[in-house]
Amino acid sequence: KIPKIVTIHDLIYRHLPELFPGENLDAHDRQLRKACADSERIIAVSESTKRDLENFFSIRSEKISVIYSACDRRYRLRDSEDRKNQIKFKYHLPDRYLLYVGSMTVRKNLLSIVQAMRLLPRADMIPLVIVGARTPYTDVIQKYAEQHELTKWLVFPTGIRTEDLPTVYQGASIFLYTSLYEGFGMPILEALACGVPVITSNISGMSEAAGPNSLLVDPKRPEEIAAGIVDILSSA
């Protein structure tokens, strides 16, 4: 007789089934439907996920509450310039840099950011620091960079500790997160809490995480990403 609540973060497999090869997506459907049916209340982490639950599973709107995710308090603390310089030295980071934080997968669409860098005027070229575990997709990124003479502009730091990550965010000129789909997009919120300008995708839950003062772009159009980088770097 204990009331049950379920939190649903995303239904990405419904939008991009090609990114889940070999997985039983029908089983995912059955599990999610049962969890939603057995629960007295459903929490969605964004209006985007709520719409997906309504559209794909025909769940009535009043059963779903949207409660946004929150990031750790450490991201709201401001570091001194000395601390920022120490972290840059510790992880061999450049003085100025663009930043990406997240897994390196096709869905995260890191390649579009690297393609955008190829379109930047030389005066606006600063390195892209990429924080995340290496995957086979990393090889795709590096191969493209080699083909287009961008290798020296990509920095892959290793072993960044969780307690140092907020300082890495704060040292960035722009945070870029142009994923193809997200239920919310926690790194977006982390960057904003650190006071860093954000460029992110204009689809799914990312626009909600980004709020009104971030730059939203079509994630499949590197030229839009490049234009956004130029605009922000030239804006006081």
Report what the structure shows:
The protein is an alpha/beta fold and 236 residues long. The protein has a six-stranded parallel beta sheet, sandwiched between helices. A three-stranded parallel beta sheet has the order 1-2-3. Strand 7, helix 8 and strand 8 form a beta-alpha-beta unit. The model has no long low-confidence stretch (mean pLDDT 96). It contains ten helices and nine strands.
Quaternary state of the chains: single chain
Low-confidence stretches: none
Largest sheet: 6 strands, parallel
Q: Whole-number average pLDDT?
A: 96
Q: What does the radius of gyration come to?
A: 19 Å
Quick tags:
alpha/beta, 9 strands, 6-stranded parallel sheet
What's the topology here?
Elements lengths: L4 E4 L3 H4 L9 H14 L2 E4 L2 H11 L6 E3 L14 H10 L7 E4 L8 H9 L9 E4 L4 H12 L6 E2 L9 H6 L3 E4 L8 H8 L4 E4 L4 H5 L4 E3 L4 H12 L3
Parallel strand pairs: 1-2, 2-3, 4-5, 4-7, 5-6, 7-8, 8-9
Brief write-up:
The protein is 39% helix and 14% strand. With 236 residues, it is an alpha/beta fold.
